[in-house]
Design goal:
The protein is 41% helix and 13% strand. It is an alpha/beta fold and 301 residues long. The strands form two sheets. It has an eight-stranded parallel beta barrel with strand order 1-2-3-4-5-6-7-10, surrounded by five helices. It is globular, with a radius of gyration of 18 Å.
C-alpha cells in the first residue's frame, strides 16, 4: 500500500473503536489500553433484543478506568430494533422507553452519547416519519431524566441520531434531512462514513471527501458530534450497508486524509470487523496516521 497523503496540521480527531463487553468492562478497558484508544463505543444491552439494560456491578470501575485512560468521548450504541419514526404507536412507545433506559444505563457507565438509528417511516411519508422521530427523541429524553432523577443515578447520556444508507423508507440518508431532525429535536448527530458513501456522498477520492466534509460543516456545524469510521463494503449509491476495515473498502487513503482535514476535532470510532489483536491495533494506528499522526495536537489531548 502507498503511504497516506501528508497532513499540514497536527491531528485533532480522537480515534477509537467499538469494543465488546462480554468479558466484563475490565476486559474492555484492557483492550482500550492495548490498542491505545482515545475514544470507545460499547453496548449496554443486547442490541438484537428488547430486554432492558440491567445495572452493571463493574460500572464504577469502568467510569474510573475510562477517566484514567482518557477515553473521551465514551459512546454507547442503542439497540438496532428501535424505530422512533414508526407509524405503529406500540412500536414507537416501546422504542422510546427502551431508548430512555439505554440513555440512563449509558450515563451510569460514564458515557457521553448514545447513537440511535434514525429509523423508517414504513411508507407513511418522510415528513410524518421525521415528525415522529423528533417527538420520540423528546419523549425518550424526558423519560430518561425522570428515571435518573427518581433513582438518583448519573445524568443520562445524550442521544445522537445516525445517518442511514437510504434503503427503502429509511430516514436521514441526506445531511439536509439529518440537520433538520437535529435542529427540530435539539440533538446532535453521528455520521457513519460507510452509510454516507452508499447513500450518495462520495468520499472515495480526495476531491470528493473534501466536498463532503465541506457539506457536513455547512449543513451540521457543531451538531456533528461523532464519526463512525467505516470503509464501505458496497458500491456508491447502492444503499446497502456493510463495513470493511480502513483501507480495505472503497475510500482511498487520500479520501480519508481530506475527510479528517475538513472535520477538525470530530472524534471517530470504528465499527469494522474484529481480527487479531495485532490487526485491530494496526487499524487504530492507521486511522491515526490518516488523521494526521500518532500524537494528538496539544490542545486536543
Amino acid at each position: 500500500m502507498s503511504e497516506p497523503a501528508t497532513r499540514t496540521q497536527a491531528r485533532t480527531n480522537r480515534i477509537g473503536r467499538h469494543l465488546p463487553t462480554s468479558g466484563g468492562l475490565e476486559k474492555t478497558l484492557r483492550l482500550a489500553r492495548e490498542q491505545e484508544l482515545e475514544t470507545v463505543q460499547i453496548f449496554v444491552s443486547n442490541p438484537q433484543g428488547w430486554a432492558m439494560p440491567v445495572p452493571r456491578p463493574d460500572a464504577g470501575l469502568f467510569v474510573e478506568g475510562a477517566r484514567e485512560v482518557r477515553l473521551d468521548p465514551v459512546v454507547v450504541h442503542a439497540k438496532y430494533l428501535i424505530n422512533l419514526a414508526s407509524p405503529d404507536p406500540e412500536l414507537r412507545e416501546r422504542s422510546a422507553r427502551v431508548l430512555a433506559a439505554e440513555l440512563v444505563a449509558a450515563g451510569s457507565v460514564g458515557a457521553d452519547f448514545v447513537v440511535v438509528h434514525s429509523g423508517s417511516h414504513a411508507g407513511s411519508g418522510e415528513e410524518k416519519g421525521m415528525e415522529r422521530l423528533v417527538k420520540g427523541l423528546a419523549g425518550a429524553r424526558e423519560l430518561a431524566a425522570e428515571e435518573a432523577g427518581t433513582d438518583g443515578v448519573a445524568k443520562p447520556a445524550e442521544p445522537l441520531v445516525e445517518n442511514s444508507v437510504g434503503a427503502g423508507t429509511q430516514l436521514c440518508s441526506t445531511f439536509d434531512a439529518l440537520a433538520r431532525v437535529a435542529d427540530r429535536a435539539g440533538v446532535r448527530v453521528c455520521v457513519d462514513t460507510a452509510h454516507a458513501y452508499v447513500a450518495g456522498h462520495d468520499i472515495s477520492t480526495p476531491e470528493g471527501a473534501r466536498d463532503v466534509a465541506s457539506e457536513l460543516v455547512a449543513e451540521l456545524g457543531d451538531r456533528l458530534a461523532l464519526l463512525h469510521l467505516n470503509d464501505p463494503r458496497n458500491g456508491f449509491e447502492s444503499h446497502r450497508d456493510g463495513h470493511e476495515r480502513i483501507g480495505e473498502g472503497h475510500v482511498s487513503r487520500g479520501g480519508w486524509v481530506e475527510l479528517f482535514k475538513g472535520l477538525t476535532g470530530v472524534p471517530g470510532v470504528m465499527e469494522t470487523p474484529y481480527a487479531t489483536p495485532e490487526t485491530d491495533a494496526e487499524q487504530v494506528r492507521l486511522a491515526k496516521e490518516l488523521a494526521g499522526g500518532l500524537s494528538l495536537a496539544r490542545q486536543w489531548v
